[in-house]
């Protein structure tokens, strides 16, 4: 007898739930970093690709970065079932356009930067109210880590 569509959906849901409740004993380290923020960047890339990624030893490293080398740095781990997907993500170049652009915060050297939308909106507002955009309200960049804003020199 051919199972109905409802049966298939139920089986699929159960399978996913079972996997999520599995203990994480078969974790595999896919990368190590000396800086926790680099590990977080990779974790975000993995999770964007549908892989559950975990960071180990982060607290130890933050308490004393000298320990970082001793314990092999901050480890990014994935479950065994996600290893192949994680490898594909690691092999691919970063899809994040901000990361690829490499605009560094002049204050803290973070790469968590993005164009600040506010000056553009204000420029549009001045265009509507005054008939011309304020030339000094050009695109600025904002650092997500320290909140610093600046105008790129180029
Ligand atoms: Zn910054």
Describe this structure in words.
The chain is α+β, with helices and mostly antiparallel strands. The chain folds into two domains: 70 residues, no CATH class; 59 residues, no CATH class. It contains seven helices and six strands. The strands form two sheets. Strands 1-3-2 form a three-stranded antiparallel β-sheet. Strands 4-5-6 form a three-stranded antiparallel β-sheet. A hairpin with a 5-residue loop joins strand 5 and strand 6. The N and C termini lie far apart (68 Å). 14% of the residues are buried. The N terminus is likely disordered. The structure holds zinc ion. Zinc ion binds next to loops.
Q: Could you give a short description of this structure?
A:
The protein is α+β, with helices and mostly antiparallel strands. It has seven helices and six strands; from the N terminus they run αβαβααβααβαββ.
Helical stretch tally: 7
Taking Cα atoms only, what radius of gyration do you get, to the nearest Å?
22 Å
Query: Helical percent range?
Result: 40-55%
Main sheet properties: 3 strands, antiparallel
Bound molecules: zinc ion
Termini Cα gap:
68 Å
Unreliable segments of 5+ consecutive residues: 1-24
Number of strands: 6
* Secondary-structure element series: HEHEHHEHHEHEE
Q: What would the average pLDDT be, to the nearest integer?
A: 70
Classify the secondary structure makeup into a structural class: alpha+beta
Strand order of the largest sheet: 1-3-2
C-alpha geometry: elongated
Question: How large is the share of residues in beta strands?
Answer: 15-25%
Integer count of domains: 2
